[in-house]
UniProtKB/TrEMBL annotation:
<protein>
    <submittedName>
        <fullName>Uncharacterized protein</fullName>
    </submittedName>
</protein>
Length: 504
């Protein structure tokens, strides 16, 4: 038999075998032969299955730092603080300028003020153990990711500090005022005790009903040292009591607004056992049911923990600091749990914003250029302006294609009517850390000739961002990302702040 004949014989036999179905009666005694030898796995991590993993981790977290990105950064010159002096007013006595023949004029009086801002170190640590680096080979550079995430985390934390860092304590929380109703809720007949604690921006951002609010914080650092600082909770109020009747009671609770408070934590229950049940951004609350949290008011202690000694004062607390000269507008209390919202002037404007702008012009001849708001206030400003002047505030664009028609109107700028230009446009920007119920107005340039101020607001650094890869002490790489800086505001009256805004 030739090789060609042998090959042909093998092919014929294969064709004959393939023509026999697995259901042939001769194969029925061979159990399981009708099944596939290999089948698709139900799991991407098992079986002889290719794992289609894209190289490189995806970084799905926001790094939104608009203030850090826009505020100029300048180098400091050593020392422990940035210091400067300013002439803040001239002719403070109202001197008249007429002079009589051959006589000299009156003596001018001026006002001066000294300013100082202490440098603070900010930083964060990351680490990558040896095994994580080994396991990540051919996928990603885990050490580089550790350094990258550390820098981005520092920038996010720096942004929050620029807006609302608080190194000086805010006032103690006043005692709540309470009224009870027999219907409208589900509170049983009982004498209820309510305690309130005002929160700084830091306390509000890091607090929740489920997790509680943070009073005094003791942090263990990467080198084993510890730091103790305030978590943003002001000295809590004395408890107030009120009795409900029936089985469907509710309690209206209000407290006098606290300057610098971005929120309020409310505790209620039996006297001495009050439990955290709500966190609000206005100074009131309607209590309709038992508190859902677990943290007790007693756990906060009797001390003030609103100040963080490791932080510098951000824009909000530079504005609210006594004697700052910033224009502050606190909304009224209104109805419990509702508050007082922004109101239209029926001419395309917002009365409270106009009041702040008018005050800044009347007192300092200033016109701010940026309005920082939360998503809540961005929406409310648009609604109020459209409500007050629906036809004048709309623009219609007609397209031939019907599928190009879209809905929704958003107010992106606000016209300041109080300026030398006869009308100055203010940008409205949503800030990721701005709490609901608050609006901050800032000014980039002063309209004063030869003011000697290049940047009204700037970050002054003794040492800008730097990274340290620490010497090995265990089988892991350790990194620290740091900066040494302070937020310097040459003229705090350049800011305006509206707080305690209700969402109505």
């Amino acid at each position: 038999m030739t090789m060609q004949t042998e090959s042909q014989d093998i092919l014929d036999r294969l064709k004959t075998a393939q023509s026999k179905p697995l259901g042939d009666p001769r194969f029925r005694s061979l159990m399981g032969l009708e099944k596939s030898t290999f089948s698709e796995s139900n799991s991407a991590g098992s079986g002889l299955t290719f794992y289609d993993l894209e190289l490189g981790a995806k970084f799905l977290y926001p790094v939104m730092t608009p203030l850090r990105n826009s505020i100029p950064r300048v180098s400091g010159k050593g020392g422990i603080q940035a210091s400067w002096r300013a002439i803040t007013a001239i002719n403070t006595t109202g001197l008249r300028f007429g002079v009589s023949s051959a006589n000299r004029g009156g003596v001018l009086a001026v006002a001066t003020q000294d300013y100082a801002a202490n440098y603070k170190g900010i930083g964060v640590e990351t680490s990558v153990d040896f095994e994580a680096q080994f396991a990540g080979q051919e996928f990603d550079d885990i050490r580089a990711i550790g350094a990258k995430t550390g820098l981005e985390a520092l920038m996010i934390g720096e942004e929050a500090m620029i807006l609302g860092g608080c190194s000086s304590a805010i006032a103690a929380t006043p005692t709540p005022t309470l009224t009870a109703q027999a219907t409208g809720g589900s509170l049983p007949a009982q004498t209820w005790s309510i305690v309130c604690a005002a929160l700084t921006l830091d306390g509000l951002m890091n607090g929740s009903v489920a997790g509680g609010v943070q009073g005094s914080i003791t942090r263990t650092n990467a080198d084993g040292s510890t730091d103790t600082f305030g978590g943003g909770v002001a000295k809590k109020s004395a408890n107030a009591t009120v009795a409900t009747t029936g089985a469907a009671g509710l309690v209206n609770a209000t407290v006098a607004p606290v300057s610098g408070a971005m929120g309020y934590a409310w505790f209620w229950g039996a006297a001495g056992s009050e439990i955290l049940g709500a966190i609000t951004t206005i100074n009131s609350l309607v209590i309709t049911a038992a508190a859902a949290g677990t943290q007790t008011a007693a756990s906060l202690g009797a001390s003030d923990n609103s100040a963080n000694a490791l932080a510098f004062d951000g824009l909000i607390y530079q504005a609210t600091k006594p004697g700052s000269g910033a224009t502050l507008y606190t909304m009224g209390t209104g109805s419990a749990g509702v508050g007082v919202g922004l109101t239209t002037d029926s001419a395309g404007g917002v009365m409270e914003i106009d009041a702040v702008l008018k005050s800044m012009w009347d007192n300092y001849r200033l016109s701010p250029d940026t309005m920082w708001v939360s998503s809540q206030e961005a929406l409310n400003i648009s609604r109020i302006i459209l409500k007050g002047s629906q036809t004048a505030a709309q623009r219609f664009v007609f397209e031939t294609a019907q599928d190009l028609i879209g809905g929704g109107i958003m107010v992106r700028t606000y016209l300041n009517r109080f300026s030398m230009q006869g009308g100055n446009v203010i940008d409205i920007r949503v800030h990721p850390n701005m709490p609901a119920g608050t609006i901050l107005l800032t000014t980039k340039t002063l309209p004063y000739p030869l003011a000697g101020v290049g940047n009204v607001i700037q970050i002054r650094t003794r040492q800008d961002y730097y990274q340290i890869e620490w010497p090995l002490r265990t089988r892991k790489y350790e990194y620290g990302v740091y900066s040494d800086q302070v937020l310097q505001n040459y003229f705090p009256p350049s800011m305006g702040l509206i707080t305690n805004i209700g969402n109505v």
